[in-house]
Amino acid sequence: MEITPSIIISIAALIVAIFVPFINAILNNRHSSKMYKQRFANEHKADVIEKYMREAGEIIQAVTADNLRWFGSAHGEMMLFADDEIKPEMQKLYSMFLGYGNRVDQTEAASLLQEISHHLSKQSPRLK
Description:
The chain is mostly helical and 128 residues long. The chain is 82% helix and 0% strand.
């Protein structure tokens, strides 16, 4: 039997037809895995931002030991996700809450929280 160009092309097509579905499945699974991880990270970041805003708002309304504890937790986690340009304002708000004991200047805290909120709304994946 003589090996002709048509036989070589046929064998190459057979090999490609066998291996391409496997390669395609591997690439699709890698892409799906990356997309899942990205979606999870975005959802977690949005949850952290929402928790931070909720806890800060609660302290503005009433400073209690529980509110301070929950805000401290939210603040620590939020500092991991926040941009460097907003961190000083967040730290100022945190210091304001800790420094005033049971009294917080609601107007100043609300104004600072609104500024932080405006910046964080640009970061939140749910708002894009």
